[in-house]
Amino acid sequence: KNEVEQSPQNLTAQEGEFITINCSYSVGISALHWLQQHPGGGIVSLFMLSSGKKKHGRLIATINIQEKHSSLHITASHPRDSAVYICAVGLISNFGNEKLTFGTGTRLTIIP
Amino acid sequence: DSGVTQTPKHLITATGQRVTLRCSPRSGDLSVYWYQQSLDQGLQFLIQYYNGEERAKGNILERFSAQQFPDLHSELNLSSLELGDSALYFCASSVGSPGEQYFGPGTRLTVT
């Protein structure tokens, strides 16, 4: 079993729809990261969170530490949101440094 | 633009060869991370340096090595290349560790 599971693997929606991508993990973590990877390959960090909820524009990320689960929401989705969204969990090593373990990603396509 | 630069953008080489990938972190960031993204394995953490010292190691092969120089730029050396080493190699940087990571544009390595 992978340490980080994302669902769904693929998601196609109409412009304007509310989008939810889920991430579950099986180990204790220091923080959870949400990343966005565009078709050209570049990766952008969207959120880093260790508790509660964060919001940036139309994006909202939540995490439930007890349930080992995080969600990424996109409100009023737009075709430019089409990308692969990757969840990564941070595991702290002996020296207090963080090693990221990645989910397999959710490919989101927003149709105009 | 994340402020992290990587060179070269593309690299095509033959099996058995050795290559060096270079990464310059964002100004002020002390931590550099290297990741490999292949079609079959997804994103994997390779190694982390903080202010010149190796801090965490992931799934890095013995044929691969890295270092971080006094000016904080980092190099990833890949030797005795195999077809399976073909992948996108990303570096990322952060101010501290753990911390939000900013990704470079990646180097696409093709081994023929």
Give the low-confidence spans of chain B. none
Rg over C-alpha atoms of chain B, rounded to the nearest angstrom: 13 Å
Return the string of H and E elements of chain A.
Answer: EEEEEEEEEEE
Give the termini separation of chain A. Answer: 36 Å
Mean pLDDT of chain A: 92
Total helix count of chain A? 0
- Report the structural category of chain A: mainly beta
Give your account of this protein's structure:
The complex is a heterodimer of chains A (112) and B (112). With 112 residues, chain A is mainly beta. Chain A is built from no helices and eleven strands. In chain A, strands 2, 4, 5, 9, 10 and 11 form a six-stranded mixed β-sheet that branches. In chain A, strands 1-3-8-7-6 form a five-stranded antiparallel β-sheet, with no helix packed on it. In chain A, a hairpin with a 2-residue loop joins strand 6 and strand 7 (59-64). Chain A is globular, with a radius of gyration of 14 Å. The N and C termini of chain A lie far apart (36 Å). The relative contact order of chain A is 0.33. By secondary structure, chain B is an all-beta fold. In chain B, strands 2, 4, 5, 6, 9, 10 and 11 form a seven-stranded mixed β-sheet that branches. Chain B is globular and about 35 Å long. Chain B starts with a strand and ends with a strand. Helix content of chain B is 0%, strand content 54%. The chains are: A mainly beta (112), B mainly beta (112). The A-B interface holds A 30-31, 33, 35, 41-45, 48, 86, 88, 90, 92-93, 95-105 and B 2, 31, 33, 35, 42-45, 48, 50, 55-56, 58, 88, 90, 92, 97-103, 105-106, 108.
